[in-house]
Design brief:
Helix content: 55-70%
Shape: elongated
Number of helices: 9
Distance between the termini: 32 Å
Order of helices and strands: HHHHHHHHH
Largest sheet: none
Low-confidence stretches: none
Mean pLDDT: 92
């Protein structure tokens, strides 16, 4: 095995490829992975060494090939300037994700009622702005746990 720098060893794309190589021998080398994805081996080296940022289509290929859908979330949060506010997807076990889903869903009706109360008169006054921020936070949490569940399902089914 070649010498791997600390920077490369810490790279999430490298780590995902090495993890996937336990199930697909061709992924144990950059050459094998690059051949399967039909990208230049030097390009994959630069991505795994943090010399170059991957393109979205490369991330999608790696996520599919390595069976690591969370790479897409990582890319959006860390590499794409438009996605800096995307919440991190925490991969865990289905039990924890299910509990998180149940927790956020129990507040759905309260969130719905608050939103209806705010918009009922067509005017958002100063007193309603804080309530609207709370509604938005609840909707963002729903989106996050939904994505966590979707990622778990993609990874495990």
């Amino acid at each position: 095995m070649s010498n791997i720098t600390d920077k490369t060893a810490a790279n999430v794309f490298y780590q995902a490829r090495i993890k996937a190589s336990k199930h697909n021998e061709a992924l144990s080398s950059r050459e094998g992975a690059a051949d399967i994805m039909a990208i230049d081996r030097g390009r994959l080296y630069r991505i795994e060494s943090d010399v170059a940022a991957p393109y979205p289509e490369e991330v999608r290929m790696m996520a599919d090939l390595y069976h690591e859908p969370e790479l897409c979330n990582y890319y959006c949060r860390k590499c794409c300037p438009l996605g800096k506010n995307i919440p991190e997807i925490r991969t865990g076990n289905l039990d924890k994700i299910t509990l998180d889903v149940v927790r956020v869903l129990k507040d759905v009706y309260k969130t719905r009622d608050t939103l209806l109360d705010i918009t009922e008169d067509g005017i958002i006054d100063e007193n309603e702005k804080e309530d609207l921020k709370t509604v938005l936070e609840n909707l963002e949490r729903i989106a996050q746990v939904t994505q966590e569940l979707r990622t778990w399902v993609e990874k495990n089914l």
